Amino acid sequence: MLSGPDLMDAVRSWLAVKAAGMRSTGVGIEVKEWFEGPGPGAVQLTFEVSLKAAEIMVWEDGNAELVFYDFESRTEIPEHRDIRSGADLEDALRMTASWVGEQP
């Protein structure tokens, strides 16, 4: 099972591989990390292009919240994921990035 610091490292590793290519196609990327306080730590990635954005927040315990935004239609689509494996994480990250036009 992928969890804790290993899960956070896997998110960072995925971003390290993908970030340059995404930015070269005009995708804005914002990264936030939370590791203070009584709860589990988390990494939040936000990807944005002119009319769309997507966020994924992954907690050390394997919970993940994805939100897809379409600014033109003013649509917000939330989705919950349980990340238990590398394949689960890859699928969630790929889906989030593809919302803003990034090819897997």
Quick recap:
The protein is an alpha+beta fold.
Describe this entry's structure for a reader:
By secondary structure, this protein is of the alpha+beta class. It has one domain. It has helices at residues 4-24, 86-99, and strands at residues 28-34, 42-48, 52-59, 63-70, 75-82. A five-stranded antiparallel β-sheet has the order 1-2-3-4-5, covered by helices on one side. The longest helix is centred in the first third of the chain and has 21 residues, at 4-24. The radius of gyration is 13 Å and the shape is globular. The two termini are 24 Å apart.
The overall average pLDDT, rounded, is: 92
Number of DSSP strands?
5
Low-confidence parts, pLDDT < 50 over ≥5 residues? none
H/E element string? HEEEEEH
Oligomer: single chain
Key terms:
single chain, 104 residues, alpha+beta, five-stranded antiparallel β-sheet
SSE topology sketch:
Elements: H1 4-24, E1 28-34, E2 42-48, E3 52-59, E4 63-70, E5 75-82, H2 86-99
Antiparallel strand pairs: 1-2, 2-3, 3-4, 4-5
Helix pairs in contact: 1-2
